[in-house]
Amino acid sequence: MSETKTHKITLIPGDGIGPEVTQAVVRILEATGVKFDWEQFAAGAEAFEIFGEYIPQALYDSIERNKVALKGPVTTPIGGGFKSINVTLRKKFDLFANFRPIKLLPGLNSHWPGVDLIIVRENTEGEYVGLEHEVVPGVVESIKVITEKGSTRIARFAFEYARKHGRKKIHSIHKANIMKLSDGLFLRCARKVSEEFHDIQYGEHIIDNTCMQLVMNPYQYDTLLLENLYGDIVSDLCAAFVGGLGLVPGANLGHDCAIFEAVHGSAPDIAGKDIANPTALLQSAILMLRHLDEEAAADKVQKALETVYSEKKCLTRDVGGTCGTTTFADAVLQAMA
């Protein structure tokens, strides 16, 4: 743990249950002994009501200055309204790698105990570039963009992570049998990068087959390398192996900037009731601590979280307990102490 450094972090609580789970996580982080200076901002509909902008310029400036942000869930309208805050921030700061580890917490039941997957998703290209328009009434054209630069750097990220952390196998997931140019380019870039990493086994699977194989036997996979849309879908599918989106962390990483976020929704139906599970954001915050080179603090929080789950004394309702957001955070704090 750093003895003198204060980490300036941009904090985006979000909406719905966001402020509740964010407050719980901030309490836990501050109990580690690491020094934080939080710069808090609204985003989305709440920000628009206050500032007339969905992402205030001051929020952009804060992330640009601090290079690290912690973000709760923000509601994105479906089929209309403003653009996704998540996608907008990823594109703005070139956060090209979406990183999601999938691992079961102790004490929880799963049809796939011991599953241990790393999902590496290209985060700025594909269908999510937002290039779509109505050609004529009733006909919409949506453009998928794949580049050599984007495909190469996400492949390199995956292989470098795998080597550093002792992962032995990477599969590129694609639909190049149909999208021969776009997905074909993605595959060619991954193959080229793989030639530099002879210590890591490399394979390729078609996306639809991958989904079937994951449900039948996820143990055959280690690290999955995917384009944007495929990664979005598969990362949520894999979250089901360990209890759902309320439990898994997420990180959006660039060369000099990172946003760590809860990947679940804002759940407005339970907002303000002190029953939401802060685990997903807390696990994302643990990733943030490691990103900040605060490994001892990260280990401390991880161990406390695992203790609370293994003892099953104070879990939230979504995982079979009766505790609320605040009392769950209290239990983690007690385990840390």
UniProtKB/TrEMBL annotation:
Keyword Nucleotidyltransferase carried by entry: no
GO biological process: isocitrate metabolic process; tricarboxylic acid cycle
InterPro entries: IsoCit/isopropylmalate_DH_CS, IsoPropMal-DH-like_dom
Domain of life of the source: Bacteria
Isopropylmalate dehydrogenase-like domain residues: 8-332
Keyword entries, A-Z: Oxidoreductase
Keyword Oxidoreductase attached: yes
PROSITE patterns hit by this protein: IDH_IMDH (PS00470)
SUPFAM superfamilies in alphabetical order: Isocitrate/Isopropylmalate dehydrogenase-like
Pfam families linked: Iso_dh (PF00180)
Homology family: Belongs to the isocitrate and isopropylmalate dehydrogenases family.
Protein name, UniProt field: Isocitrate/isopropylmalate dehydrogenase family protein
